[in-house]
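Hello again, I could really use a second opinion on something today. I've been puzzling over a protein and I'd love to understand its fold better. I'm sending you its amino acid sequence along with the backbone structure tokens. It would help a lot if you went through both lines with me. I've dropped the whole record in just underneath, so have a look.
***
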Amino acid sequence: MSRSERDLVAALRAEIAAVDPSRACDRAAESAGLGGTPVRTVAARRSTVARLLVRLRRSGSRSSGTAVDAPPFDWATAADHCRTAWLRGRFLANGSLSLAGGRTHLEFVVPLAEAPELAARLAQVGLPASFRARRGRGVVTWKSGETIGTFLRRIGGGAALLEVEARQVSRALRGELNRVLNAESANLQRAVGAAGRQLAAIEDLEADGRLRDQPYVVRVVAAARRETPEATLGELAERLALHRSAVQRALERIEKLTLHAGTGRRRRRLVRPAADAHL
């Protein structure tokens, strides 16, 4: 990730850690979600989470050698708001977020045995995730930006998440603009090449006198192309009050006539000397 992306992730984590549950049950649930991580490890890695631990302890949670020595959390009977608080604690203790390259990736690194249980709990709240083993640990993963946004918003990431989404939209728009510009450039190059061939063919047909023998539509299209070499097929059709397909067929006929004429002239030059010799 770039430095700005890392700063944005840090701001998002700080915003989530600053959520102050009003219910005692939510504070206990968040404490349970944070549980199992040594205080020194958390403090050294994430100062925002360390401050959260101190706040929860002052609000009534009991502290010991682990981050917060809270009673076991009963997910099956817990209310939705308690489940959200527990997930917030689990993310702050074991979650990581990456925004590198415009792709959003969130994962929980937990004890191996906990991974399937955590994935099942996330599925129950409408946020299904995949899980796998990695170097003896369980990894629960989301790669869907929409799912990750829903989760972060649910656990308290609002303002920073808006900035994340704004950057993603901006990056997507820039990518789409580049694709459109590249496509337009390619179309323009093809149109310029086609117009060049058509102008050369018109000059050849006019030079050998065959242009005046062509149908009226072919002649007026040829004249319009010579007057406006940069015009598109649609612009020529609008100018001449013709269907676009009629203009396209006329220009294709002009190019084919020139190709066939070149072959025909070569054949005539080979045949005439033989005929003169016979006479």
Notes: The longest strand covers residues 105-111. Residues 38-45, 61-68, 263-279 have pLDDT under 50 and may be disordered. The radius of gyration is 36 Å. Residues 159-207 form the longest helix (49 residues).
